[in-house]
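In this section we walk through a basic example: taking a raw amino acid sequence and producing a predicted 3D structure, encoded as discrete structure tokens. The instruction is simple. Fold the sequence below.
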Amino acid sequence: MLSQLLPMLAITFTVFMLFFIFMGIGYMVSKKPLRGSCGGVVKLMGNEKCSYCGDDPNKCDSLIAEQQENALKAAQLGKSV
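The resulting token sequence is shown next.
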């Protein structure tokens, strides 16, 4: 039984590590953090209003733009965020 379990665990661990490596490479290339959809799962469960963005899909983008603008202002002042 152990001889069957070890190769399966090794393959599973390798697949998970590859996913993490590819997610890291994707983050370094795009410089955007991973984020979920606005209310995707919530709407499936029956709740119509997204508690994070208030059903405004542009709000997520505007929050990211605002954070980038604040980081740029802080960098101009010589401070880190």
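Looking at the output, two observations stand out. The chain has three helices and no strands. Residues 2-30 form the longest helix (29 residues). In the next section we compare this with other chains.
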